[in-house]
From TrEMBL:
Stated name of the protein: Formate dehydrogenase subunit gamma
This protein's record includes keyword Transmembrane helix: no
Binding site for [2Fe-2S] cluster: 104, 109, 145, 149
Keywords: 2Fe-2S, Iron, Iron-sulfur, Metal-binding
UniProt source species: Advenella kashmirensis W13003
Cofactor(s), by name: [2Fe-2S] cluster
InterPro entries: NADP_DH_HndA-like, NuoE-like, NuoE_N, Thioredoxin-like_sf
Length: 183
C-alpha cells in the first residue's frame, strides 16, 4: 500500500475498504497505455491536458472505457474528465482514419471561401463532415479556428496546418497523402 504520510490502523482499514468499493479498470491494451502515460506524467494537479494529449498521441483516440481509470488516478470525477475530452475538439473518443482532415469553419475562413473548400473536400474524399469514410481511411472534421485567421481559408491535414488553401491545392495535398498511404 502506498504511503500517504499518515499511517494508523484506522486509516489503513478505511483505505482498504474504499479500494474494495472502487471498481478496478479491467486490464486491456488501452488501460495499459493509460497506465504508461500516468507513469510517465504522474498525477499532479494540472496534468489532465498533457495526459490526454499523451494518451491520444499513443492510441490515436481517448478510449471511453478509460475515463474511469483517468478520473481515479487524478482524483477527478468522470464528469470532469469527460467534460474536458468533449470540450476540446482536438480530443476524440473514436478512431480517425490515417488521413485526418480538419476544416476551419471560423468567421475569417468563412469570409474567405471555406464553404467552397469544404464542399470540395467532401466531394473529393467522399466523406461527410465530422465523420470517417466507410473504409476507415479518411476522416473529415469541422473545427472552429486553427489560429491562422490571417491566412484563410485553412485546414489541418494529419496535424500539419495548411493556409490559403484552394480546392486545387487541396487536391495536390490529398493526392500526396493517399499515395503515401498506398505505398
Amino acid at each position: 500500500m502506498p504511503k500517504s504520510g499518515i499511517s494508523s490502523p484506522f486509516i489503513q482499514s478505511v483505505d482498504n475498504k474504499i479500494r474494495k468499493m472502487i471498481p478496478l479498470t479491467p486490464e486491456t491494451p488501452h488501460s495499459r497505455a493509460v497506465s504508461a502515460s500516468l507513469a510517465k506524467l504522474g498525477n499532479a494537479p494540472g496534468v489532465l491536458l498533457p495526459l490526454l494529449h499523451d494518451i491520444q498521441d499513443t492510441l490515436g483516440l481517448i478510449p471511453g472505457e478509460c475515463v474511469d481509470q483517468i478520473a481515479q488516478a487524478l482524483n477527478l470525477s468522470r464528469a470532469e474528465v469527460h467534460g474536458v475530452i468533449t470540450f476540446y475538439p482536438h480530443f476524440h473518443t473514436s478512431a480517425k482514419g490515417p488521413i485526418h482532415i480538419e476544416v476551419c469553419r471560423a468567421e475569417s475562413c468563412q469570409a474567405m471561401g471555406s464553404a467552397t473548400l469544404e464542399a470540395h473536400i467532401r466531394q473529393t474524399t467522399g466523406c461527410d463532415l465530422n465523420a470517417t469514410r466507410a473504409d476507415g481511411q479518411v476522416s473529415v472534421d469541422a473545427v472552429y479556428c486553427l489560429g491562422l485567421c490571417a491566412q484563410s481559408p485553412n485546414i489541418m491535414l494529419n496535424g500539419e496546418p495548411h493556409a490559403h488553401v484552394t480546392p486545387q491545392e487541396f487536391d495536390e495535398l490529398y493526392r500526396e497523402h493517399t499515395e503515401a498511404l498506398s505505398a
